[in-house]
């Protein structure tokens, strides 16, 4: 597979004033097209750094997607750096100049003289017309590498990439797009997953990767384009089975795009037609906030303590048995016809235990439906926001398991 | 000024699965400490690439902050790459091992055997204890450059940087820190801010920047180390005044560190000693979730419609006047002694309007305290998650303004 690099120019990126979202966007595009993305580099507005970097890349990559540094001001140095790095003098591009003039006249504004600079392109380069802003991009071959230079403004960059750069790629590179399958889990860590896959034979052409996010842990399989569909499915299901359906809440890229745990629950809840009530002391609204957009979440109530919740819903608390208290609360809510399903989340542990990242609290989940009753218990650790988020996820996941088991 | 580079390891970064926010965060820290940040580089999990890059950096930078690749799995290669690049064999670190064991035993989980790997550190390196996750970091000098290796999980990385790495820097580098002041706003856009600053004289030594996030828009001023303190304050307040206290909820870096809007509200609410009840139809628990860790949020109730809320709290809905309905609900809650302050958020608009990113809904806020009553009305636009988030922010901001005005 051809090797591709991403190169971003901008003092605002290296100083951390701006997060470089262009690099991630372009990488995702490139991977899907069939490139191997080897490196991202960002440099500021020092001409020497820029020239050095361009030369390096021209020797080690087959393609480089570049953003930024095409503006009219003195710290926009990309064209000059290209000219110096590859000995390609800048030439005035008449068409580019007319486009820049038109951009300003369309907006009924005079063209500032500084913008003339944007019509200077390295000799022999292809102009990448910019219908979405002032600065045209340009593309050229230098050494081993084909470079495409685009503006740094995300909307302009995306349009120029999709409309101007992407169509040029198939003629220049032999590309076989690969297929990404993602197995999504909650409640199991990355190292646990790794251990469950121990000893499993994965063909060397399939790339295995992991990504631990706040809301899920992903096991990723990147299959080459010519990998047989049945074998893709077989390997995916083998792995999913090893991870267990207790933890796997969805598989992306095989038959469907599943989204987050909340999206999976949303789909399953819509199938049942049931409504849900949530009462809790522990996630402080986060579980319900994650279900935004759902029509089935009817009520969500947070109170600070199990006893406050019991008082509100007219039942008795048993401080020594939060499982029992959870069951009573769920029953009370159901009797009051609050909803078809009731999810209760209570916790044991003081406010200072909750806040202390080195101390744990215990979460008691109760799910009562028309014809079933389930409970689970989890230890929550880490900073308070993590405890909150884990509580929300474990609550959703109890619901998800019930719905998948009773489908 | 010493030259610093940022280096991120992770296939998920080069393939665009993850946006590298660590690089921007670390750069901002480094710039404030007095480093010149010259370059960001991200590479995937190819050992040869990693080794080559580490060698390059050891020759051209004075300091390098590195993230990622310290996990337990086979694609976590940083320690191995360091060992090979600089001829420093990996040695088993007894203390690191015990910390990793403790992490698991605290969570009452067995330590998977793969995690043992995380206790292997390059010979002669300093261990950077990780109290926030499993993997310790490490630091070492190689060639010209002092490297600090940290985990890629943002929360762990930030803690390790602030608590372990930052204290080591003043002894190793001659640093003259610059000063970053951030004016934080909610309810006003970036181009609006730019327009309000039009014509303002800002000295060329002061760098002005903007960053628009989900929860706030930041106007950033980077002052050189020798910039006089009074003039720093004067320029900051001039700008804050142009932006108006209606929108500015805090200024970071002048006299204090203010944090998020929720953190500002938290501090102000703690000063009052009052408790808050929130009832709403529109942010679905998000406002209360943002207040996690506060002791003053007593109750939060979400219901799908104003009429459902009114029924629950025994008052009458006026579908044609949600301001009136909000006032009635607040009064009912206060009469029931739910809390000292009551915040009601209702919305006008169907579920399909809510979901449609091209249609708007109207938010009605009511805040009732012991001796004041305030309302506000906002139009919410964009995707449903944005409407939800805006509602939560506008609710918190009404509370913030009341608290600041009555301080």
Low-confidence stretches of chain A: none
Average of pLDDT of chain A: 93
Number of strands of chain A: 17
CATH superfamily of the largest domain in chain A: MoaB/Mog-like domain
What class, by secondary structure content of chain A? alpha/beta
Oligomer: homodimer
- Note the overall shape of chain A: elongated
| CATH top level assignment of the largest domain in chain A | Alpha Beta
Which sequence of strands runs across the widest sheet of chain A? 2-1-3-8-7-6
Biggest sheet statistics of chain A: 6 strands, mixed
Kindly identify the CATH topology of the largest domain in chain A.
Answer: Molybdenum Cofactor Biosythetic Enzyme, Chain A
Based on the coordinates given, report the CATH architecture of the largest domain in chain A: 3-Layer(aba) Sandwich
Distance between the termini of chain A: 43 Å
Tally of individual helices of chain A: 15
What number of domains of chain A?
Answer: 3
Characterize the structure shown:
The structure is a homodimer of 407-residue chains. The first copy, chain A, has a six-stranded mixed β-sheet with strand order 2-1-3-8-7-6, with helices on both faces. Chain A has a five-stranded mixed β-sheet with strand order 14-13-15-16-17, with helices on both faces. A four-stranded antiparallel β-sheet of chain A has the order 10-11-9-12. Chain A folds into three domains: 3-172, MoaB/Mog-like domain (Molybdenum Cofactor Biosythetic Enzyme, Chain A, 3-Layer(aba) Sandwich), CATH 3.40.980; 179-258, Alpha-Beta Plaits (2-Layer Sandwich), CATH 3.30.70; 262-405, Maf protein (Alpha-Beta Complex), CATH 3.90.950.20. With 407 residues, chain A is α/β, with parallel strands linked by helices. In chain A, helix 2 (21-33) packs parallel to helix 6, helix 3 packs across helix 4 and helix 10 packs parallel to helix 15 (384-405). The longest helix of chain A has 22 residues, at 384-405. Chain A contains 15 helices and 17 strands. The relative contact order of chain A is 0.08. Chain A has helices at residues 11-14, 21-33, 47-60, 78-86, 94-106, 154-165, 169-172, 190-196, 229-243, 261-272, 286-290, 306-312, 322-335, 351-355, 384-405, and strands at 3-9, 36-43, 63-67, 90-92, 120-122, 126-128, 137-142, 145-150, 179-185, 207-212, 217-223, 248-252, 276-280, 297-303, 341-348, 361-368, 373-380. The interface between A and B is large, with 77 and 79 residues. Strand 14 of chain A pairs antiparallel with strand 14 (297-303) of chain B.
């Amino acid at each position: 597979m051809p090797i591709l690099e991403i190169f971003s120019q901008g003092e605002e990126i290296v100083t951390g004033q701006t997060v470089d979202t262009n690099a991630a966007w372009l990488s995702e595009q490139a991977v899907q097209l069939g490139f191997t993305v080897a490196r991202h580099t960002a440099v500021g507005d020092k001409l020497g750094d820029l020239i050095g970097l361009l030369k390096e890349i021209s020797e080690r990559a087959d393609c480089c997607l570049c953003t930024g540094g095409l503006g009219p001001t003195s710290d926009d140095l990309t064209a000059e750096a290209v000219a110096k790095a590859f000995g390609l003098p800048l030439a005035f591009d008449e068409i580019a100049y007319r486009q820049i003039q038109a951009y300003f006249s369309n907006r009924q504004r005079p063209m500032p003289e500084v913008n003339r600079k944007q019509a200077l392109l390295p000799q022999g380069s292809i102009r990448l017309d910019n219908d979405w802003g002032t600065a045209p991009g340009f593309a050229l071959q230098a050494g081993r590498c084909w470079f495409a230079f685009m503006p740094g403004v995300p909307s302009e960059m995306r349009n120029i990439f999709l409309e101007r750069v992407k169509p040029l790629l198939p003629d220049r590179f032999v590309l076989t797009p690969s297929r990404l399958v993602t197995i999504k889990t909650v409640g199991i860590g990355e190292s646990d997953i790794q251990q469950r896959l121990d000893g499993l034979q994965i063909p060397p052409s399939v790339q295995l990767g992991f990504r631990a996010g706040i809301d899920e842990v992903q096991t990723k399989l990147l299959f080459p384009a010519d990998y047989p569909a049945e074998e893709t499915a077989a390997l995916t299901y083998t792995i999913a089975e090893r991870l267990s359906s207790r933890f796997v809440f969805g598989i992306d890229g095989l038959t469907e795009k599943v989204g987050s745990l909340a999206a999976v629950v949303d789909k399953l809840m819509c199938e049942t037609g049931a409504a849900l009530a949530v009462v809790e002391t522990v996630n402080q609204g986060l579980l319900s906030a994650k279900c935004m957009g759902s029509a089935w979440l009817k009520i969500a109530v947070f109170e600070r303590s199990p006893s406050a919740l019991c008082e509100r819903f007219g039942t008795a608390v048993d401080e020594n048995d939060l499982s029992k208290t959870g069951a009573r609360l769920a029953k009370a809510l159901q009797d009051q016809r609050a909803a078809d399903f009731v999810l209760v989340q209570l916790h044991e542990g003081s406010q200072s235990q909750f806040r202390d990242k080195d101390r744990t609290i215990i979460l008691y989940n109760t799910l009562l439906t028309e014809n079933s009753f389930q409970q689970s218990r989890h230890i929550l650790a880490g900073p308070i926001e993590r405890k909150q988020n884990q509580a929300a996820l474990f609550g959703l996941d109890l619901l998800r398991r019930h719905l998948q088991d009773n489908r």
